[in-house]
Design goal:
It is built from six helices and nine strands; from the N terminus they run αββαβαβαβαβαβββ. With 207 residues, it is α/β, with parallel strands linked by helices. It has one domain. Strands 7-6-9-8 form a four-stranded antiparallel beta sheet, with helices on one face. The longest helix is centred in the first third of the chain and has 17 residues. The protein is globular, with a radius of gyration of 17 Å.
Length: 207
């Protein structure tokens, strides 16, 4: 999404916003370590704003923390916030409703793009990512830890969205045309938690 926004006339990217499980020090759903997200932001040349969430986190607490983040962004004179949503109408509607009247306008730069073609386009364009989380109710657990590449796209079952839009999988992008340099990672343990399968990634020394 950052790569697409960079090429959009009239759009200047001011920073990134990510929610973290404050207890685990990891991204809330993807379970990626904070250090990797910070390295990712540095390689993108963008400041990172963190929304700290407890675990477990109720929807009421989540929405309250996000309202605080939105208010801070408005105070800092941001005008828009971009989401990578692709086709889930209920998710888009939720975001639009929560932002109504808040002072930030939502952008959906990838909305409506056919996901089979989009996934192939990202791979062909040089995106390099690792699957960090799999929902085994939708996708075989063996996909966790795999590279997001053409071989993975070929192996996905027909019911799985190639971009994981229904939550089949989540990933960590560590190289691509939007990065000034790669974010080297090394795989750690595979963990099953809360019904999901996670591949831990740790920072690795640059080659």
């Amino acid at each position: 999404m950052v790569h697409v926004l960079h090429g959009t006339p009239g759009v200047e990217i001011g920073g990134l916003l990510t929610s973290f499980n404050a207890d685990a020090d990891r991204v809330s759903m993807h379970a990626v370590r904070r250090a990797l997200v910070e390295a990712q932001a540095a390689a993108l040349g963008l400041p990172l704003t963190s929304v700290e969430l407890p675990y477990p986190c109720s929807n009421e607490i989540y929405e309250a923390r996000m309202r605080e983040a939105v208010a801070a962004a408005v105070a800092a004179r941001y005008t828009h916030v971009a989401f990578g949503d692709l086709f889930l109408e209920d998710v888009r509607r939720y975001r639009e409703e929560r932002l109504a009247g808040a002072g930030l306008e939502p952008l959906f730069p990838l909305w409506g793009r056919p996901t089979p073609a989009l996934a192939r386009e990202m791979v062909a364009g040089g995106l390099r990512a690792t699957i960090t989380c799999v929902d085994p109710r939708q996708l075989d657990a063996s996909f966790v830890g795999r590279a997001f590449d053409a071989a993975l796209l070929d192996a996905l079952p027909p019911a799985a969205d190639p971009c994981g839009e229904r939550g089949e999988f989540h990933s960590f992008a560590w190289d691509g045309p939007m990065f000034a340099r790669p974010v080297p990672v090394t795989p750690g343990a595979v963990v099953v938690r809360d019904g999901f399968v996670f591949q831990d990634l740790a920072p690795a020394a640059a080659s």
